[in-house]
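Note to self: the last two entries modelled the partners one at a time, which told us nothing about the interface. This time every component goes in together.
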Amino acid sequence: MTSTKSNKHIFWQAFISAFIIFWTGIMLGILFESSRADKLEYIYFNAETDIFDILIKNEIISEFDLECDIGLKENINFADQIYFEARELEKYDASTQITTEILELHKRYDLLRVMLWKNMIDFQKKCPNETNTVVYIYEYDDPSNNKQAVQITLSRVLLDLKEKYKDDVVLIPIAGDTNVKSLEILKDIYDLTETPIVIIHQKHVVKGLTSLSELESYLN
Amino acid sequence: MPEFVTLVYLSFTFVALYFFSFFIILTLKNRKELFSYPEPKKNYTISVLIPAYNEQDSIEDTINHIMASNYPKENLEMIAINDGSTDNTLKILKSLEKRYTNLKLINKKNSGKADSLNQGIELAKGELIAVVDSDSFPSPDSLRKLTGYFNDPKMGAVTSFVSARNQEKNFLAKIQSAEYLILGWSRKLLDFIDSVYVTNGPLSLYRKSFAEKVGGFDIKTVTEDIDITWNMLYHGYKTGMCLDARVTTVVPHRFKIWFAQRTRWGVGGLQAIAKYRKMMFRKGMFGMFVVPYVSFSIIMSIVAFTFSLYLILQFILTRFLATGYSIATDSTVFRFQEINLYPSVIFFFMVVLFTLSLSYYWYVQTKTNQYSASSIRKFFNTLFYILVYLAIYPIVWFSSIYKFIRKDYGWYTK
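The predicted structure of the combined assembly is written out below.
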């Protein structure tokens, strides 16, 4: 039997060993999460370029009195693109536990979606069309179990709507509590005081749970 | 700053890594001595105490196993204590008494195992006391392998390596077999830092003079083996473990009996902590390691279980509500896109810890050559033990705490 003396260093040796493994894991985790954030950053950069392109294009259409159809299709495509990117972002976000880069990116994406919403409002004014703008404002930061369940359901209802009406619906989900100042102004304008909430054409406001048929009744 | 949940997970991960490193380093440092044992410098006289309450099915086999020991018979005395059995235990013991001349019989009213052992100690003439449960079966050389530890004049108690005799009975028995393996192995590792904190009931040896000095077995505790070990450590005596001294025991194969047994063990552990709480962080391995280690293990196990259960229930509640709402709104109930396949850092940590644990358990199994089952079944049993058995075991602690608080011990006399 080995004496205790030869094992007396075991306590700090185990601590050092655990510390090294733990911090190696944390460092790898930070690298891993940062690489994900970098990937999203690249996608975001492209999306940002696209929206500026669309904004300028809309200005040109308005300025030179060009055909509205030229801009409409691109608005819809862009909305679809950032909608599906946002869904991936949500998953990355849920798997991010150490770093905060993706949280920052989330806020920037929300800003991008507010820009898209504002652009859709302007575009509708300049080029009235049959496309339905459906904005979904939800709670991002730690919703209660019930609210989370309502939001999961609303996401499903809205995706059903999008799948059914395809290009006739522009779906813009925005987190309502990431402190995007421009969104706060829009919320004040349309008197949107709670989440989750669905706004169709800036006219019909649906609070809480809703069904596909109810939303359909507000569409053009 | 990570969220609270993440911080809790990371803290658990660090603690798990610490204890994993602790046992790995202990294994590596002492790998050549895991199965070694000191040769006895003299032939100690041993009194083997066999307390029995309603053990008609196993008592004869137990005594036959002790009689088959290769320990010199002239130094071996056996004392069977019938603790007021209501079955045929007494009848069997009386017939065995006629067969074996060195078997003495104490027949008394039912007063519990601890009291039975104390009465046995009073009658015993040996320098060492061996306690053998009446449903346990020591291997022929186990007594000899244990006695060498008493060359150390400070050695108070030495315990053996227990395995499940009925491991092929059913799945619960198989899982306990995996559990006994780990318990025995970790107990041996703790021996290298003088911290063996349980000298098990199936087979343990005590120096009689020390057992008497510490007041014998405490009749107020439900696990007299834990109590006397802590008492020995408290009085500055050493405890040890021999991995090569084997004993098999009958493990419960019915859930209800298993749960009752484990609850009793849990209550016994809590009684020991309560009794020796003032020793916490005091001088010596007992105060600085044994008491905090056992207390911390219980707390960690309960906190981890409660926290995980809370998160799982939250998830289930949310999904249940969402499904109800989806049905009510006539929308799609589930979409595959909702499944998040992006792993998190915590997930990677869990995978690493799980893989390390599985590899280590596999190493222990190989070293101890425990199972006769096929490799795939062995692997499945280990997997189940790590993933399910250990995860739900804290339920036993809740039951133990409840009984401990209510002082519902109920095992003094049975």
